[in-house]
């Protein structure tokens, strides 16, 4: 899959943090933030509806997804 369904998250410190954009009916804008761990297993880190919260959704959720990934992999680097 490539754009527009999946893309790297701009503003993330983790290069491999990506966003899945499933189709929507127009009233919702569901996003799923995911990454692949070192063993190449997919990790669905979090998801939600960003409709009406375009900038805030990313500002709030990118740091949370980064921390969830670090917790999962044991990477304590900030």
Would you kindly provide a written description of the structure presented here, covering whatever features stand out?
The chain is an alpha+beta fold. The chain has one domain (6-73). 26% of the residues lie in helices and 27% in strands. It has one helix and four strands. The protein has one helix at residues 54-73, and strands spanning 6-8, 18-20, 30-36, 42-49. The protein has a four-stranded antiparallel beta sheet, covered by helices on one side. The radius of gyration is 13 Å and the shape is globular. The mean pLDDT is 88.
- Largest sheet: spatial strand order: 1-2-3-4
What sequence of helices (H) and strands (E) makes up the elements?
EEEEH
**Alpha-carbon Rg, integer:** 13 Å
How far apart are the first and last residues' alpha carbons, in Å?
Answer: 30 Å
Residue runs with pLDDT of under 50 for 5 or more positions: none
**What characteristic shape results from the CA principal axes?**
globular
Strand content: 25-35%
Q: Mean pLDDT, rounded to whole units?
A: 88
- Largest β sheet strand count, sense and barrel closure: 4 strands, antiparallel
Structural class of the helix and strand makeup?
alpha+beta
Instruction: Tell me the number of strands.
Output: 4
Helix content range of the residues, please?
25-40%
Q: What's the helix count?
A: 1
Q: Provide the number of structural domains.
A: 1
